[in-house]
Fold Glycosyl transferase family 2.
Amino acid sequence: MITISLCMIVKNEEQVLERCLASAAPLVDEIIIVDTGSTDRTREIALRFTDRLLHFAWIDNFSAARNYSFDAATQDYILWLDADDVIAPDNQQKLLELKRTLSPDTDSVSMIYELSRDEYGNVAHSLRRNRLIKRSNRYSWQGAVHEVLIVGGHIVTSDIAVAHCPLTDADPGRNLRIYSQREAQGLPLTPRDRLYYAHELLEAQQYRQAAAHYERFLDEGEGWIEDEVTACSKLADCYHALGEAEQEWNAICRAFRYDTPRPEFCCRIGFSLLHRGKYEAAAHWYRLAIELPAQEKWALENHACRTWLPHLQLCVCYDRLKLHDLAYAHNEIARTYRPDDAAILQNKAYLEPLVSRQDSASDNQEAG
């Protein structure tokens, strides 16, 4: 059985740290917490779980702090978490089983990162991260902000999930400030830096500046394919916010240069066609979003685009095409994901009489 060091960096996390550590402590053999300057009860809470509480003077560089925590680890493998992450009981059992059975020739284990859930408990957004790594390989983090762990070798893909459960964002402008300062200082931006700088600008609703950085990132062609696909999606968001429909359409279609269709882009095309009154064409793309086989992609995934959303939109398309039985059927599928959704319930009330009349007319026709 392998042994595991849990490595974390924290600052002012008194609201969430105990929840995280309570979920992870039974799974690991060592806990290393690096504090970067807390002024609340974070350190007190950490000491309830470990005596390996270290200090790192904050230098606006997340990778430096994470690498410091990794350097302090002593066990076979390193598991990293953020303070607002939680490992749910079912995933705790999966991780314990992985710990018992993992081959020692494994260099890294990737896990699902559940970024958010909707009000019905469905996973709304997720991506995949290298989460458990072999300590002796001395893999390191790169990037001052939105840091990335650079790994290689034998990577195992697991179905273990870590849930991101933030309560508040104490400093929502922090990352944008760091990127802006680095740009002002003339420090070079890697392709990944430029992409995440654009993400921060988009989050701050600086759409024109964000679009310029996304365009440059894509034009330079030095990014990872998953990041290029994500950039196309976010670029479309920018142009949608700016009311530039043609540029938005071009950004959506640009994604097909990099990979096969993804549900999100199918839904985007369907939405554009639906609002132009091209109902049959829109229905084609929404059906494709549902039918595409699930793939282990590392990019951010919007789960709505392969679950309830295309069914809800197919309901609209088929209603416009007077195919009320199909509209009703797809609305009912959407309702399995969102049972109390007002729009879905309204569709149900509207369609049930139409389907009933359609069925009666069909019965009368057969009788005649």
